[in-house]
Design goal:
Elements: H1 5-8, H2 10-19, E1 30-34, E2 37-47, H3 48-51, H4 58-76, E3 79-89, H5 95-112, E4 116-123, E5 128-136, E6 151-154, H6 160-164, H7 173-179, H8 185-191, E7 195-200, H9 205-212, E8 218-222, H10 230-238, H11 243-249, E9 256-260, H12 262-265, E10 273-279, E11 284-287, E12 293-295
Parallel strand pairs: 3-4, 8-11
Antiparallel strand pairs: 1-2, 2-5, 3-5, 6-9, 6-10, 7-9, 8-10, 11-12
Length: 307
């Protein structure tokens, strides 16, 4: 039987690429020693039919293209240096629409203090935006440098975007999170001096936890520490959705997921929410509000296999 890429998914493709290149790290970005610091570089491609909801404005498309890349810099604790924009559009796209996309890109670059320094254009049947963000960090945060007993924390609410994608309303906190995400850049720069590891939540909490897991270590998440509101649960129920599935398996939050020692948590000068701890169980599990402990499935958004 001949395998197709849909049989293995994006994460296995990435593993194959990493295994066949000695210079690629398994973290969110590339790390290159440069002078007395480290050059941090990352790229992310967004395709209109896969990444931009129908109700997303052209401005927000451009802004998000910068955000997804800056979020990777944030996860490494890197200060931004520059942004490269490659964009492919249909020849029939209205000029004003293109200008709105570019305006979104430029406003995002201004918001994150990352200058647009170059790029490329091409023709395609739909909008495709590929960004490359460059940053620097003397001490980049890695994904798997945590220790047993470390606390697991997030920089803000998760699951809001997942619900926002499902709501048929013009504007509320959930829809805003889905259509106008923001990277936690300032928080990431602070965390590099306090956290033991970090990543950003793009494909869902569960997927990110499995992505940073190393052999012999486990994670215990506590549902009550996630502080899921009654309103959130009711909205999910009204849509016939499982609220925990939205929280754990959808993503697009762009919050930072990080580990930190108990000692450093008391010194941390930014707000965060502790949601669990690193264990020696070798499994990823959640302590539900009803007292039951169950394993969390390794499931999240993944190109080639997710609808």
């Amino acid at each position: 039987m001949t395998l197709k890429v849909s049989d293995i998914g994006e994460k296995e493709l990435v593993k194959y690429i990493i295994a066949n290149s000695k210079d690629i790290t398994p973290d969110d970005t590339a790390i290159t020693e440069f002078n007395s610091t480290n050059l941090i570089s990352t790229c992310d491609m967004l395709i209109q039919s896969r990444h931009f909801p129908d109700n997303m404005s052209y401005f927000d498309m451009g802004f998000k293209a910068v955000t997804v890349n800056v979020s990777d810099l944030a996860a490494m604790g890197a200060k931004p240096l520059g942004f490269l924009l490659s964009i492919a559009i249909s020849k029939d796209l209205k000029l004003d629409s293109f200008k709105e996309i570019l305006d979104g890109v430029l406003k995002a670059c201004e918001y994150y203090s990352i200058p647009l320094i170059g790029g490329d254009t091409n023709e395609a049947s739909e909008i495709i935006i590929s960004g490359t963000a460059l940053g620097c960090s003397d001490k980049p945060l890695m994904k798997d440098t945590y220790n047993e007993g470390d606390l697991i924390a997030i920089t803000g609410d998760i699951g809001l975007a997942a619900l926002g994608f499902k709501l048929d309303v013009l504007d509320n906190i959930y829809v805003k999170k889905a259509l106008k995400p923001k990277a936690r850049l300032k928080e990431g720069i602070v965390l590099k001096d306090f956290a033991t590891s970090a990543t950003d939540i793009t494909d869902g909490l569960a997927s990110e936890l499995y992505g940073i897991k190393k052999e012999g270590f486990g994670f215990m998440i506590h549902e009550d520490m996630l502080e899921i509101s009654d309103e959130y649960k009711q909205l999910a129920e009204d849509l016939d959705l499982d609220y925990l599935d939205l929280i754990l398996h959808v993503g697009e939050d762009f919050e930072l997921l990080f580990t930190i020692s108990k000692e450093n948590l008391g010194k941390l000068p930014i707000d965060c929410r502790v949601i669990g701890e690193v264990t020696d169980s070798d499994v990823v599990e959640i302590n539900l509000e009803n007292g039951f402990v169950v394993n969390i499935k390794n499931k999240g958004y993944e190109h080639y296999v997710s609808d």
